[in-house]
Amino acid sequence: MADDQLLVTPRHVLCVLGSGLDLDLVASIAEDAGFEFDREYSEPHPDPRMPRAFRSCAAEASFTGADWEAVESHDTVAYLLSRPILPGMGPLVSELLLALTAKLLRSGATAVKNESSGLTHGRDRWLELADDLAAADDLAAADDDPERESKLVPLYFAWVKRPIVDGSLHFSCGMHLLSQPDIEVEGAEPEEAAELIDALALYMLTEERGQNLSDGEGFRLAEDAPRWILGHHPCDRYDDDDFFYNPNGYWRLTPDRK
């Protein structure tokens, strides 16, 4: 990948809604956790754009009626930012932010979305993912074997939006928040594309071999499944000042025609 791409550092941007939400409390909780409270854009007023914005962030996958009501009736908006994520530090920053998200939801926030991957979850799903992360922490501590891969699974589902459709392509957005390339699949049906994105992403995140993929290498969902060919490309879908931009580029999976 190009060296100048690596000069662009991703960062999390979190949008937090509430009704009667104490912005000073949100700022205190965020800053205590090492995150920045955006005082310029946070405000104790409703934002009429929010229902549409949350719908565009895959809310339908986990939102309940109560979640939609929280968005519709909010009267406070807060924005939080991580520090720029240095290479390799994405998992740690994302872990801290998922714990912070749960704390905010338990402290009066009613809805949260990530502006850096275009993804939201309902309140129950956010808390479930945070609990999964905490359980993985506890398991690692009990085994005296701090394997980071078990924690990366809930982080992947918390922060990576997929599959996004663009013509014949299906792709992910958010792997830059975990210091990894995003994934594209060309020429697959939607269900198969979603399976391929998840399988390759989790392989990259949890397997040592997944850190050393090569152009032209093959990938399969199972031993007897169709073979796909990997090709690495720079991120040209977004400008390098876009929060979606991935300086690690992306892996594209194309069918093996042989």
Instruction: Work out the radius of gyration.
Output: 19 Å
Report the sheet-strand fraction.
15-25%
Pick out the low-confidence regions: 1-6
Q: Assign a percent range to the helix content.
A: 25-40%
Strand elements, count = 11
Would you kindly provide a written description of the structure presented here, covering whatever features stand out?
The chain has 258 residues and is α+β, with helices and mostly antiparallel strands. The protein is built from 8 helices and 11 strands. Helices cover 36% and strands 21% of the residues. A 6-stranded mixed sheet has the order 6-7-8-11-10-9. A 5-stranded antiparallel sheet has the order 2-3-1-4-5. Helix 7 packs antiparallel against helix 8. Strand 4 and strand 5 form a beta hairpin.
Summarize the model shown.
The chain has helices spanning 3-6, 23-32, 50-55, 65-72, 90-105, 123-143, 149-159, 190-206, and strands at 13-18, 36-37, 76-81, 109-114, 119-121, 161-166, 169-173, 182-186, 218-219, 228-233, 250-255. The chain is of the alpha+beta class.
